[in-house]
Amino acid sequence: MTDAMRAETVSITGAGGDAIEAYLAQPLETAPVGGVVVIHHMPGFDAPTKEITRRFASHRYLAICPKLYWREAPGASPDDAAATARARGGVPDERLVGDVAGAIAHLKAMDGSNQKVATIGYCSGGRQSFLAACSLPLDAAVDCYGAFVLAAAPEGAPLSASPIGHLAKDLSCPLLGLFGVEDQFPAPAEVAELEKILTEQRKTFEFHSYEGAGHAFFATNRPSYRPEAANDGWERIWDFFGRYLSS
Amino acid sequence: MCTYQTTTLALEGSGKGAEGWFALTEASVYFDHPVHAGAGHTLNIDLLNPGRGPSSRVAVELDPGSARSLAEAILATLESAPAGQLTGE
């Protein structure tokens, strides 16, 4: 067993057959391993998101993070790309699903894949991870404080974030949800309502909500970082993926 | 929280970005996570020219009090300017 890894930007085929860039991190492991599609937060494909992607590789998963703003801003810095995407109304849901499907196909085509793949998303990516899990065949999905799964986005919000709770019946895999009790988007009431819907639909899921944590408690470079919640959250993720992505 | 609320508006003027001066055509105003400022949320303004590409951007991330002070200063400055000079000429 080796802890060596390789990380680089690659080209994948996304929605509509478009070639988009993605960040790929892979352990230099000969045994087949599971794959993880990392769905970045609204600030985009930034350095902390690349660190998260490499973190999965360090735990012996193939990990890929598609650049969701590639079409609006090819080659731009992550903050400029995020600003451009925001000004143009965000990422359409249909395109997100197509890009994640492309990332899944890229992982499964790799020699080191055991053909099991999960998604994980943070912030807006949390909602998009749920969306992908309701739209594509997956082995597991993680929603880290994704807002507007059930609640409507604020009046005047131009971003593509309409409620998608009605898709819960199509959830294709076990879902892990990690939330902060002090978060307003999603608020604890919305998390409880989603829990109720998934229970009614007899879906396999587990939600954990952390006291003293709000939105973005995993973000180590922001004041919202909450080490206790984040550390426990990572343990939940490793346990969850260990159960559902192993060969 | 992560707010999705964004106000976009057309505008005319110029801004100075990483590659020098350029014409501005629109702006985004939103209250959300900053990229650089040391706060959980800030009032963010992107002054843009999408026709020149994503890098043609002047960005600021302001704490709420500073943003209000700036907005009031802008309005006060405009109100005190000679009326004849507010046509842009």
Overview of this structure, please?
The complex is a heterodimer of chains A (247) and B (89). Chain A is an alpha/beta fold and 247 residues long. Chain A has one domain: Alpha/Beta hydrolase fold, catalytic domain (Rossmann fold). Chain A is built from six helices and eight strands. Chain A has an eight-stranded mixed beta sheet, with helices on both faces. Chain B is of the alpha+beta class and 89 residues long. Chain B has one domain. Chain B has one helix and four strands; from the N terminus they run E-E-E-E-H.
Order of helices and strands of chain A: EEEHEHHEHEEHEH
Largest sheet of chain A: 8 strands, mixed
Taking pLDDT < 50 over at least 5 consecutive residues as the criterion, the unreliable ranges of chain A are: none
Total of domains of chain A: 1
Structural class of chain A: alpha/beta
Per CATH, the superfamily of chain A is: Alpha/Beta hydrolase fold, catalytic domain
Query: Largest chain-chain contact?
Result: A-B, 39 and 25 residues
**Rg of chain A, Å, rounded:** 17 Å
CATH architecture of chain A: 3-Layer(aba) Sandwich
Low-confidence stretches of chain B: none
Provide a count of the helices of chain B: 1
Strand content of chain B: 35-45%
Shape of chain B: globular
Spell out the helices and strands of chain B N to C. Answer: EEEEH
Short description:
With 247 residues, chain A is of the alpha/beta class. Chain A is 33% helix and 23% strand. Chain B is of the alpha+beta class.
Please specify the SSE layout and strand pairing.
The complex is a heterodimer of chains A (247) and B (89).
Chain A: E1 5-13, E2 19-27, E3 33-39, H1 47-58, E4 62-66, H2 78-87, H3 93-108, E5 113-122, H4 124-135, E6 140-144, E7 175-180, H5 188-200, E8 205-210, H6 227-244
Helix pairs in contact in A: 3-4
Chain B: E1 6-17, E2 20-32, E3 42-48, E4 57-62, H1 64-80
Antiparallel strand pairs in B: 1-2, 2-3, 3-4
